[in-house]
Design brief:
Elements lengths: L2 H6 L2 H7 L4 H13 L1 H21 L9 H7 L16 H62 L4 E8 L8 E6 L4 E5 L10 E10 L2 E8 L10 E5 L6 E8 L11 E6 L3
Antiparallel strand pairs: 1-2, 1-8, 2-3, 3-6, 4-5, 4-7, 7-8
Length: 264
Amino acid sequence: MDVEKYIASGILEQYVAGTLSEEENLEVQHYAIEHQEIQHEIESIEKAVLEVTRAASPGLMPKSFEALRNELNEVIPFEPNIKRKSAAWTNYLGWAASLLFALGLLWLYLENDQLKSKIEVVTEEKTSVEKQILDIRNEMTHTEDLLNQLRDQNVDVVALGGQTASPKAYAKAYWNKKAKKVFIDAQGLPEPPPGFNYQVWSLKLDPLTPTSIGLLENFVLNENKVFELENPNESQAFGITLEPEGGSESPTLEQLYTLGATGP
């Protein structure tokens, strides 16, 4: 056999540590009898282990590890034919204690790593919930502010009825002349097709003079479908048409969806 390769395999360290099976222990003993180099290597490993044990666990009492002693007793010793220096039980137990201590540190490290991961997940969830709460508060504040503006005593409410292009469509214009603003409630308008926007017009009736006051942009994303537009005009009516994206200079009458007069 290749003795050097056998020694380098690490099986002798496992033999000294007592982690081999009964058959593997017998095999090591057999090779140690045949090859003096293997016997010397075993003794060298034992000596190194004892030195490490003395340094890591000085003064360790064997009675503290009675359970480990019972397990170590199961390791098969060399047969009498081999002159093998036996180690004191305190030394082996000290080495075992050092191993257990290292395993304990590894377990604590893994537990700590898992705990950190859980804390990160909880922190992310907490941040997400806080953001949702903030968004809801902002939305409530915006809604309350919008309602207050719509309820202002200076606001005139203009009903816009459906026209030929969409008879079932409807809308409302909340016109605050003092603030020169119009709020369009477009809940009754169908969703515009891709590439088109609704455009709002301020109208003078005699002669008919339309003036664009803006687009109902991001119609789909606007959940409450209320749009705020500037209106410095002396409006006699309001109309909403469907126009190509970006709007038109003059209304497309064939695409007039709603229309309503402001009253006297």
